[in-house]
Amino acid sequence: MGESATPVKAVHEAASSSAPPPPPTSAQIPPRPASKPVGELYRIRPWHTVIVLTLALLLDLPFLIDRLALSPYTSHTTGGVLVTGASTGIGRDSAITLATKEPGLIVYAGVRNLRDAKAITALHLPNLLPVTLDVTKDNSVQAARRTILKDLASRGPEPDNPLPFVGLVNNAGVTGMAPLEHHALPEVEKIFAVNVFGLLRVTQAFLPEIRKHQGRIINISSVLGALTVSSFAAYSASKHAMESLSDGLRRELRPFGVSVSVIQPGFVASPIHAKAETAAPSPSFPASTDYPHLSTPAKRAHLVRCRAHAASPRSTSAAVADALLQPFPRTRYPVAAVDRVPAVVFTLAAAILPDRVMDSWLEA
Predict the structure, then answer these.
(1) Beta bridge partners of 184
(2) Is residue 353 part of a domain?
(3) pTM attached to this predicted model
(4) CA–CA distance, 167 with 38 (Å, rounded to integer)
(5) Does residue 137 sit within a domain?
(6) Catalytic residue positions?
(7) CATH number at residue 185
(8) Which of 55, 132, 319, 332 is the most exposed place for a label (fewest CB within 10 A)?
């Protein structure tokens, strides 16, 4: 026992010798450097300005080239314009905007039923007239054409000199939401019947007048006409087809002085998005078993946020008015936003980012 006392004592002495030094006094603590004011931390520096100006130039470069390379298109302030799908949302607001912005235009609002026609008439705009139109039926389109041309003839300065038909805004559209494996073909066919074949049917009916008077065509597409997201693939495919038809029309009609523009809205306050949210896959939906990642609470919350932050239809109507009335209309107008991200960000990203990168971003 006497032999073990010496090591224990040594351990205690060693421990006491290695004890931490006492904390320094306030006099020994060096002063903290003064923090920079907030304005200094977030001050705009010259290279920030260079980056912003460079990005702005890149965004506007295609339009600048267009303006330098092209002659101005004929701008009409009198004549007839048809807006399809004008019962609600984008179509209704576009029709009202055109009628109020240019009193010389006679704007025909395409509606499906008498109730919607009465709602248009109740606005008491003398140059905004409802016309019954179902874009999926040949007889309805031809009847609307006869009605419009007859009305324009009655408004001409002379019996044999009718007002010209100068503009077509193809807005009528429907949507649908489901993964492609479970998307019922009749619903997919309906989407294409309205969004693609309906657009082409109306355009073919009015093209002779548009060519004759150097009018304009404006097609309401979507940001999903530039990219595709899961569950909306069928709707997106119809908008991609619309974009392709628009490109073809623009090139075929260029020698006639006819401008064709595409509007690419993000989320705009409209019943079409309310219907999409209502159709979102629920836990009882068959696709939820096979595709659980498409019906998560996060996906539903994203749709709710998109609707909550949806832009007013005025954002789209302003683009429609520009495409119809300005001498240098753009070929594409990305407008509004998706969950507060501007639509133009999505269209640019789709054009320059690799597919796999877009996949990761859109499906995060």
Answers:
(1) none
(2) yes
(3) 0.80
(4) 53
(5) yes
(6) 235
(7) 3.40.50.720
(8) 55
